[in-house]
Amino acid sequence: MVELVNITKLYHKKPVVNDVSLFVPRGQTLVLLGKSGSGKTTLLKMINRLIEPDKGSILIDGENITNRPVEELRRNIGFVIQAIGLFPHWTVAQNIATVPTLIDWSKDKISSRVSELLEHMGLPLHFASRYPHELSGGQQQRIGVARALAANPSLLLMDEPFGALDPIIRKEIQSDFQHLGIFKEVTKIVVTHDVKEAFYLGDEVALIDEGRVIEKATPRNLLFNSISDLVRSFIGEDAWSLKLSEIALSEVIAFLPLTESYADEVLICHTDEKPFSRVFSLTNSDHQQVKIVDNSGLVGHASVADLKASFLKLESQLAVH
Ligand SMILES: Nc1ncnc2c1ncn2[C@@H]1O[C@H](COP(=O)(O)OP(=O)(O)OP(=O)(O)O)[C@@H](O)[C@H]1O
């Protein structure tokens, strides 16, 4: 776990990070979201002491990081940046092995860790002997992540990690990041200015503005129940699609009048279906009615108009709690 307590950083006597306190439980992902210049990178770099704060303290697993030798601290923190920063004259294997080599792992242990990470990242084992320029941008970024994870750090810091990738590869890597077991145990702090990426990756999202934390909450609470106008304006036009992707049909059912089957056009929807977007897109189609099923069979039928109305009821209910 990571804890920042009243962290302030001044440049030219002005705070660029201003009295920030944050807590990230072990294995969770906190996303720092904010526009350019809001202080996200400065905040991130204070956690691995690339920048030293002027006030406050940072604890990792309960220990103040200033009590640890800086090189030792950094070896235990994976760091991934947008520019990737692979060493061009080193092979993929040598790149991944950077920290394990520094801390004197045996050749066998390093080689099996390299193979294991390539496999985890969905890359063929023969990539080990390739050089970075022989890989695509997405493959290079996967190697960058593998390198950051090589020595089993308890913390992974990522600064706009997927920002340079084209949208399809970016989605693929974001999805891996969400689902690959290798990320589960690691505490992750991710910087981005991309609202959708923040809500997709974060267990919690902290909106940073002018060096301060405006609000930190789960994506669901920020979307449906934010206390801040700034959060709402930052989410802006993405709010609707993000809300739809947070909700499962099973949650809407409480507000949904079920009917007998009456229409020809029936589409089957499962109650676990999430995001709700596919169901909701029906409101713009020729479908009049959906057939709703769960794991034990038929739940009932509902009109598409009622589906829309019940989603809106759920939305207003979530907003008041
Ligand atoms: N070494 C420095 N000296 C003076 N000012 C700095 C220094 N580093 C950063 N700043 C200023 O601190 C503020 C925060 O910068 P920071 O890089 O943390 O923002 P950011 O939110 O990560 O932005 P971006 O998304 O563009 O990377 C900016 O106004 C920047 O100009």
UniProtKB/TrEMBL annotation:
GO terms for molecular function: ATP binding. SUPFAM superfamilies: P-loop containing nucleoside triphosphate hydrolases (SSF52540). Residues 2-235 form the ABC transporter domain. Keywords: ATP-binding, Nucleotide-binding, Transport. InterPro entries: AAA+_ATPase, ABC_transporter-like_ATP-bd, ABC_transporter-like_CS, P-loop_NTPase. Transmembrane segments: none annotated. Belongs to the ABC transporter superfamily. This is ABC transporter ATP-binding protein. It comes from Imperialibacter roseus. The lineage of its organism: Bacteria, Pseudomonadati, Bacteroidota, Cytophagia, Cytophagales.
